[in-house]
Each structure stands twice: as C-alpha cells, then as structure tokens.
Design brief:
Strand order of the largest sheet: 1-2
Order of helices and strands: HEEHHHHHHEEHHHHHHHHHHH
Number of helices: 18
Oligomer: single chain
Shape: globular
CATH architecture of the largest domain: Up-down Bundle
Length: about 475
C-alpha cells in the first residue's frame, strides 16, 4: 500500500447531490465548478456550502487538524534542534574556558547552506511529487537522523579527523542533511495548506499555524534547555541510557509528525512522470517569471522578505540589548525574543477575529507602520518592562504583515505553480535571514543599538508603504 492510497478527496471539497429533483421543485439552481466540472446546485445547497471563516471552521476540517497536529511536533523539533546541538557540544566537545560560539556558528552555517543552495530547486521537485509523501518521508528521515546521533557519537568517540573531533563533524553532516530535508518539507507544507483549506478560511488557518510556530519558538528559546534536561533524566530513569533522552525527544517528535500525516488526505492524484517534463532549471525560470508577472504575489513576497530581515536583525540586537539592560544578563536574551513570539501569537489570534473586516493590503500597511512604531519606542527604552512591551507590540504587528501576505501567496498561486513559488519564497527568506545576521552586528558596533533600531523602523515603514502599489488589488 502506498501513502497516496489514503489520499481521497479532502474534507473541504464540495460534494453535491444530483440536482434534478431540486430544480424541478422550483428552487433556484446555479452552476458551480467541482473537480473541474460544472455541476448544478440549488440556492440552498450553495448557501450551505459557503465556508465560514474562523478557527472553528478550520478545526472542523479533519485534514487540516491532522496537518496542524503534525506541525506541532515538527515545529517543536525544529525549534529545539539548535538547543540540542548546543547541549551535545557543551557535554562532549567544548573544552574548559573555551568559547562555545565557534562550535555553534559551524552548526548554524551547516544548517544555512542547504537553505541557500536548495531552497528554490526543492520547490520545483515538490511540484512534481506527491505533497503528502514529501511531508511524511521528510519528517521520518529527519527523525531517523536525529535518533542516530547517540550511536554515531559513541561509535566515533575519541577519533579526530582534520584537527576536529569526528563526532562533531558528524553533527555538521546531520545538521546539513536535516536542513536539506527541511527545504523540501517547507514548500510541500505550504502547498498542502492551500489544497485542504478553502480560500475564505486561509487567513484563519495561517493564523493558527503562526500561533503554533510562535509557541514552539517560545518553548525553544525559553524552556528548551530544561525540557531536554528533563528528557535526559526520564530516559536514564527508565533504563534508556545516560544523556540520550534529549535526542530521543527531538527525533521522536519528527517521527510522530510523519506518522500523523500518513492519514491526511489532500485529494492529490498521483502524477506519472513521462520523461517529457521541462528541465528543472526551465521550471525554476518559469517560477521566477510567474513571480515577476503577478504583482500581488510579488508585493507579498517583498513584504515577507523585509519583515524576516527585520526579525533576523532583532535576534542579533537582542543579545546586545540584554547586555545593556540592567535587569537581565546577556545570556538571557532569549526572554526578549520570546516576548516577540508572544506578540506574534497574540496577533495571530486577534487576526482570526478582526482579519476579515480589513483587506489584506490594509492589514499589511497597518502592520508595517505598527512594527516601525514599536521599533522607534524600543530605541528610546532603557527599562526591561518597556522593552518587553515594545517587543510584544512588534510581534503583534508583525503577525498582521506575515499572515495576510502568506495568505495572499497561497490563495493567488495556482496549484501547478505552488511548489516553485513556495520554494523561491523559502529561498528568498533564508537569504533575508542570513544577510542581517552577518551585517547587523557590524552596524551595531559602529552605530549603536538605538541607531540600528531606528534604521530598522525606517526599513519596515518604507517597505510597507512601497509595496502597497502591488497589494492594492485584494
């Protein structure tokens, strides 16, 4: 049995009974398109089939709930993965009085390279493959890779290659492979949301997804380390061995996500490759051309890239802010980032209730101005509590940019282009995340935190206003 054998029509697909009796009974009939065919439905049936926006509507969709449940476990694993690598480095590779930053930077570079190299190409292949199979297989493989870490470290203990511990080189390889699989997972996940959720409910679905992602971010930054320590303790107490519980927790989270998604139905038909398909690079050019021609998607992508650049810069600035603020230490910068995550979660929930009252263009404009205002306030803050308040506000307004713009890309991209577009989006955002990490530290050293924050505020406001010419048609 193949994974695609589970894949019948999704729950959100309209099922229409024969309309002959209704038409003859005097009810007004209309024509709708179902599965590519024109079908006659009565006025009553058409009204009943209109999706109702809101969290409750998407939570009634069994396939979305399955995808969302898988996301909870995969997001938890994603956000705690770096914390896991740091814990392993501290316990096995870092020497006494040695800085850990070099070890961690190497892991981050190994994770970033696939995002830059394969982000766009992965989307092209996702368009040719069964989306659910991509989601299941990538999660299971990531789980296997993480679960193999304790055995591989034991096998290579004490061995050195090219002046580096072989065990650490294995961590670099595993981080590279996990990140490579993620490049295929991300566009497949975004495409799957568009396939199983009706357009009127996409904003609510993305709000729920963002809430979960921010919750995972908070868990990763704020309590990831104690959770992994607890997993080690539990693992040792039940006889699994010392210091392997954390790998089991992260690896099992990926594996559970993959298993959950086996029962999801996206309504896909298995595509049979004949060998006559366009070359991969031709498909990639086709995706770039489509982005250039579609003004709404182009504007949404530009805003997402600007927002992610600002957020990435804030991860660097937060370290220096934590060092300056008298109430906390530099090592506690995660609390500042967690405050932004709380704000994004609150903004995502709020959008579910008020998002339908405004156009996506309006939401993104208000959000960009709000992010700018929060950054300006932060630049004048010398208090921990005022800083936390500004960061929460920045998170709230960031959600009103990110969620409507992601919804625009999902709803306006045809199914045959989704993998390419989401792959290019993934690639652009990964580059947007990488460059600020390299440049913001230099800017902060030369200009200081307040000036950098004011520059970021200007970028957010100008970007939001500039892209309105693309987003004006909603």
């Amino acid at each position: 049995m193949r994974l695609s054998d589970f894949d019948k029509a999704p729950d959100n697909e309209l099922t229409v009974p024969t309309a002959t009796n209704e038409a003859s009974s005097g009810l007004q009939a209309d024509s709708v398109t179902v599965n590519g065919e024109d079908v006659v439905v009565t006025e009553t049936q058409a009204e009943d089939s209109v999706p109702q926006p809101g969290f409750f509507a998407v939570l009634k969709n069994r396939n979305f709930v399955t995808l969302w449940s898988g996301q909870i476990f995969s997001q938890l694993a994603d956000k705690v993965y770096l914390v896991l690598m740091i814990a392993i480095i501290e316990s096995q590779f870092q020497s006494e009085n040695q800085s850990i930053s070099g070890w961690v930077s190497a892991i981050m570079i190994a994770s970033t390279i696939p995002a830059v190299l394969f982000g766009s190409l992965a989307g092209v292949f996702v368009d040719r493959w069964h989306k659910k199979e991509v989601l299941v297989i990538t999660n299971l493989l990531r789980g296997v890779l993480v679960l193999s870490v304790p055995f591989l470290l034991w096998l290579t203990k004490g061995q050195v290659v090219a002046n580096l511990p072989l065990g650490f080189e294995i961590l670099l390889i595993i981080s590279f492979l996990v990140s490579t699989l993620t490049q295929f997972f991300s566009p497949a996940e975004q495409a799957a949301i568009s396939m199983i959720v009706d357009k009127p409910n996409l904003l609510s679905a993305n709000s729920l997804y963002t809430t979960t992602a921010m919750g995972s971010l908070i868990v990763g930054f704020a309590i990831g380390e104690p959770i992994l320590a607890l997993a080690d303790s539990v693992g040792a107490s039940i006889g699994l061995g010392v210091n392997i519980g954390k790998e089991l927790l992260v690896g099992a989270s990926y594996a559970v996500a993959g298993i959950l998604l086996i029962v999801m139905r996206t309504g896909e038909t298995k595509q049979i490759l004949t060998g006559d398909e366009p070359h991969v690079l031709a498909d990639l050019k086709d995706g770039v051309r489509y982005l250039g021609e579609n003004q709404q998607i182009k504007g949404a992508l530009i805003q997402l890239v600007i927002l992610q650049s600002v957020i990435a810069s804030m991860t660097v600035v937060a370290v220096r802010m934590a060092e300056i603020l008298p109430e906390i230490k530099a090592s506690q910068f995660g609390f500042l980032l967690a405050a932004g995550g709380v704000g994004m979660a609150l903004g995502a929930v709020g959008l579910n209730y008020i998002g339908q009252k405004f156009s996506r263009a309006q939401l993104s404009l208000y959000g960009s101005i709000g992010v700018s205002a929060a950054l300006i306030g932060l630049s004048f803050s010398q208090s921990l509590w005022l800083s936390l308040l500004c960061l929460v506000g920045m998170g709230v307004f960031s959600a009103s940019v990110a969620i409507p713009m992601q919804t625009t890309i999902q709803s306006e991209t045809p199914e045959e282009m989704r993998g390419k577009v989401f792959g290019l989006q993934n690639n652009a955002i990964n580059i947007a995340l990488s460059l600020p990490l390299a440049l913001t530290g230099l800017a902060e050293t030369a200009l200081g935190v307040p000036t950098v924050l004011l520059c970021l505020a200007a970028i957010a406001a100008i970007g939001g206003i500039f892209t309105q010419k693309y987003n004006s048609v909603d």
